[in-house]
Specification:
70% helix; 13 helices; mainly alpha; DNA-binding; Multidrug-efflux Transporter Regulator, Chain: A, Domain 2; Transcriptional regulator (MerR family); DNA-binding transcription factor activity; MerR_fam; DNA-bd_dom_put_sf
Length: 257
């Protein structure tokens, strides 16, 4: 039987070392051999298990669900799961192609097309879920799991979604009125954002900063299929938070002294 280091496995399967360590941490899969220096190695059987995990992740199963079925699922069942996932994607693409073809035929018959008829195409693009490849560019598995579980979704109608939408609206009103990020309203918005972020990212400041960096970039946001937010809104929010955190640090320093 062959054995492979964590780095070799990461390169072989296209999985980050951080992801492999996270799988080990949550008990999904652990290297079953150690050398005299404590270095851990994966066996050929471990490689097969990791390939199973990769296929199940592609089928949009969470790591928790994968952990529950991993030891029981057969290769045949795994292939069925993957086939169902691919068929679903094919059906979605066929539906999009049929709708676009119908619009093209409509244009040929009527010589024109109303903008309202393009709305379904826009909705399809906005509701498309990011793939693992999209997420893997910026976040490790643990961070992805946290965001996929907690990130507000526009198709939902919960209070958290409304709170974030209202924050964006309040910033747009500030911009319309000419309020600065350092204004009273700008600072209240900054504080509310930090409170909501703490809830969203479960106190994980590093994840919050990563997500905010993605959000500031229109290109990265588009790659992850996040709802578009105007650049001026993000600039205002970034400046407001900077002023707020700077003032907080000064106040803490004054209190300590």
């Amino acid at each position: 039987m062959n054995f492979y280091s964590t780095g070799e496995v990461a390169k072989m399967l296209g999985v980050s070392v951080r992801s492999l360590r996270y799988y080990d941490q949550i008990g999904l899969i652990s290297p079953n051999k150690k050398d005299e220096y404590g270095k851990r190695f994966y066996s050929d059987d471990d490689i097969v298990t990791l390939k199973k995990i990769t296929i199940l992740k592609m089928s949009n199963l969470s790591l928790d669900n994968i952990k529950k079925i991993l030891s029981e699922i057969t290769i045949e069942q795994l292939l069925y799961v993957h086939r169902d996932y691919l068929q679903q994607k094919i059906e979605e693409l066929h539906a999009s192609v049929h709708h676009t073809t119908a619009l093209l035929h409509s244009m040929k018959l009527e010589g024109d097309l109303k903008w309202e008829q393009l709305i379904p195409l826009i909705q399809e693009a906005q509701t498309k879920h990011p793939t693992d490849a999209d997420w893997n560019q910026f976040l490790d598995d643990q961070e992805q799991e946290t965001l996929k579980e907690k990130l507000p979704k526009l198709e939902q109608d919960g209070p958290q979604v409304k709170q974030w939408i209202n924050l964006i609206r309040r910033i747009e009103l500030c911009l319309k009125r000419g309020d600065t990020p350092a204004s009273e309203e700008g600072q209240i918005i900054a504080e509310d954002t930090l409170i909501l972020s703490d809830e969203l990212f479960a106190g994980n400041e590093e994840l919050g900063e990563k997500f905010f960096e993605i959000r500031k970039s229109p290109e990265k946001s588009q790659e992850m299929n996040l709802y578009p937010v105007k650049e001026e809104v993000m600039h205002f929010l970034e400046a407001a938070i900077h002023v707020f955190t700077t003032n907080e640090s000064k106040q803490r320093g004054t209190t300590v002294s």
